Amino acid sequence: MSALLPTYARSGLSFARGEGAFLFTEAGERYLDFSSGIAVTALGHAHPHLVEALTAQAQKVWHVSNLHEIGGQERLGQRLCDATFADRVFFTNSGAEAVEASIKCARRYHFANGAPERYRLVTFEGAFHGRTLATIAAGGQAKHLEGFGPPAEGFDQVATFDIDAVEAAIGDETAGVLLEPIMGEGGMREVPYRFLQDLRALCDEKGLLLVLDEVQSGVGRTGRFYAHEWAEITPDIMASAKGLGGGFPVGACLTTEAVGQAMVPGTHGSTFGGNPLAMAVGNAVLDVVLEPGFLEDVAQMGLRLKQQLAGIADEHSEIIAEVRGQGLMMGLKCKRPNAELIAALRERGMLTVPAGDNVVRLLPPLIVGEAEIDLASRAIDGACAALKSRATEHA
């Protein structure tokens, strides 16, 4: 019996090493990794620049606590601000912590500006913001809330991307609106650009804060540094993580100056957040992702993948109902249980990730090339053909 809590339905696979877009078992079996640790290993496995940065820092200092200045933290924070809307950054270890910090920032902003009653956030059904008590309440999904007592207060959910529905949910206690530009766990549902633009205007009109959860969609995943850039808007607060550390635990809460100045000493903290090891890797990730032409290449590879998936969906319409997503954050809405397609792909040496609404997520590393995308397409085509054949045999 394992000593670990049984909180995961594990695949049974165990990997000894990785290289680029591939993982290898102890026995040497090779798997094409189109899960990227759920959008985490943005630069693939064992990227030489990340390995060098982590190794060099490990020989200097690992941890000093945030009671002291950390040079790598100052550098990464400034680089994130220079590349985004933000003026201030708080570093965390995970996406859930980044969202928690974002929620606290939104509440604290109104408190500091004389409106402590404004603490509630409008959120959206089907969202996923993390596994802490506050973030499962923000997500509002029954399967995540069950068994953990009354949900944390302060979240009002709306069902659709309808600006009138959002406005109807706003009250005297509303602090802002929290959402993902692309709902990853929620089925790779894209939020329409027009809705994001209307939401930005509504928040400005009502004196509310727009809080974006870009934990999964950020750091180049869609072909822009952050997905909201496609809609040509900016948030007031944004949570980032996953790809930001390329596999090392790094998260960040980014804010405007107006929001950031409300977070005075003692209002928030983290023992490990922003430690020297994490910052060395985070800076190495940005060295690559912000290199001229890198995001354009991601967008091109995303377009190639989307076009090939569209052809597969047409060929196997009995299996795939819809292709969703953007860039290298794609999803296949299935007509059969998504677990069947995931298993069939694993049999063909390809790793994917399930999502809500019976979707299979495809999250290759951002360094993926044409050869790997073509290999993935052949595996998906073969897996769909196999599922159709099995269905015919059992008919």
Description:
The two termini are 40 Å apart. The protein is built from 13 helices and 17 strands. It has two domains: 118 residues, Aspartate Aminotransferase, domain 1 (Alpha-Beta Complex), CATH 3.90.1150.10; 241 residues, Aspartate Aminotransferase, domain 2 (3-Layer(aba) Sandwich), CATH 3.40.640. 38% of the residues lie in helices and 18% in strands. With 395 residues, the protein is α/β, with parallel strands linked by helices. It is globular, with a radius of gyration of 21 Å. The mean pLDDT is 96. The strands form four sheets. It has a seven-stranded mixed beta sheet with strand order 4-12-11-10-7-5-6, with helices on both faces.
- Gyration radius, in Å: 21 Å
State the shape: globular
Count of the separate structural domains: 2
Query: CATH superfamily of the largest domain, please?
Result: Type I PLP-dependent aspartate aminotransferase-like (Major domain)
Give the number of DSSP strands.
17
- Strand fraction equals 15-25%
Structure class: alpha/beta
Mean pLDDT figure: 96
Order of helices and strands: EEEHHHEHEHHEHEEEHEEEHHHEEHEEEH
CATH topology value of the largest domain: Aspartate Aminotransferase, domain 2
Low-confidence stretches: none
Give a short account of the largest sheet: 7 strands, mixed
Number of helices: 13
Highest-level CATH class of the largest domain: Alpha Beta
Helix content: 25-40%
Order of neighbouring strands in the sheet with most strands: 4-12-11-10-7-5-6
- End-to-end Cα distance: 40 Å
